[in-house]
Amino acid sequence: MALKRLWELDAIGITDDGVKDNTASMQQKRLQETFSYDGNRYTVRLPWKAEKSLPNNHSQAYRRLIRLEDQMQAKPEEAFAYEYGMQEYISNGWVERANDPGSAGAEWYLPHHAVIRHDKATTKCRIVFDGSSRYKGVALNDLLEAGPPLQADLVGILLRFRRFKVAVQADIEKMFMQILLHEEDRDFVRFLWRGFDRDITPSVWRFTRVCFGLTCSPFLAIAVVNKHAEDNAD
C-alpha cells in the first residue's frame, strides 16, 4: 500500500487524464442542455439517475425536527443563530412555502440540523440539510447523479500560480443560492420548520435554489459557472 501511494504521488501532474476529462466534459454538456438563463439567473434541473419515486418521509423529518428542538432548548444562543439563519433563507426567497400537498412518490423532506463552528469569525452556525438521510432504505442522494469533479486541478493551479508576479482570486458569495431550481424539482427538497415554537404545526417549505446537502450541488454550481464563462468568452 505504501509503495502504491509513492507511485501515485510520483505520477501527480504527468498521468494521462484524457479519458476521465472527456467523460466529465460529456456529462457536463449533457447536464448543461437542461439549463435555462433569463438574463439574470440560471435555472437548473436535478440530475436524476432514473425514474424518481420516493416514499413519503414526512414522519421521519418531523421526528428529526423534534430532536433538533430538544437539542436547542438547552442552547439558546445556538437556537437564536439557527433561527436567524433560517430567516435569511426565507427573507431572501431561497425557500418558499409548499402550499400543495404534493404527489405520491414525488416529494421528499430534508431533515436538517446545526453544525457549530466556534472558530469561524462569521458563520458560526450553519444549517445543514441532510440529503443522505435514509427512509425505508432510500435516500434522495441515492437517486441523484453526483457528477464528475469539475474543480480545477490543484497541481495545475499551483503551477500557473508561479507564472506571473500577481495572482488574483475571487469568491462567489452564496454560490449555490445564486442558482434557481426548476419548479418541477422543488417538491423533492421540502423541509419542516416552525421557528422552535412547539405550540404551532410545522410549516412545509421547499427550496427555490440549489440546496446544500445534495450530492449533485457542487457539480451543478460549477457547471453553471463554466457554461456562463463559455457563453460570455468574448
Structure description:
The chain has helices spanning 2-10, 18-32, 58-73, 76-91, 154-161, 217-231; strands spanning 36-37, 42-44, 95-97, 112-116, 125-129, 134-135, 138-139, 180-181, 190-193, 203-207. The chain has 234 residues and is an alpha+beta fold. It has a single domain, classed as HIV Type 1 Reverse Transcriptase, Chain A, domain 1, CATH 3.10.10. The protein is globular, with a radius of gyration of 21 Å. The model has no long low-confidence stretch (mean pLDDT 86). It comes from Trichuris suis.
Salient structural properties:
three-stranded mixed β-sheet; 234 residues; 6 helices; alpha+beta; 10 strands; HIV Type 1 Reverse Transcriptase, Chain A, domain 1; DNA/RNA_pol_sf; globular
Q: What is the CATH superfamily classification?
A: HIV Type 1 Reverse Transcriptase, subunit A, domain 1
Beta-strand fraction estimate = 5-15%
Radius of gyration: 21 Å
Silhouette: globular
Total number of helices: 6
CATH architectural type: Roll
Biggest sheet architecture? 3 strands, mixed
Largest sheet: spatial strand order: 1-2-8
The oligomeric state is single chain
Fill in the CATH topology.
HIV Type 1 Reverse Transcriptase, Chain A, domain 1
* SS content category: alpha+beta
The termini sit apart by 48 Å
Number of strands: 10
Q: Report the uncertain regions.
A: none
User: N-to-C SSE series?
Assistant: HHEEHHEEEEEHEEEH
CATH classification, class level: Alpha Beta
As for the number of domains, it is 1
Whole-number average pLDDT?
86
Helical content class: 25-40%
InterPro entries: DNA/RNA_pol_sf (IPR043502)
Organism: Trichuris suis (pig whipworm)
Protein name: Reverse transcriptase domain-containing protein
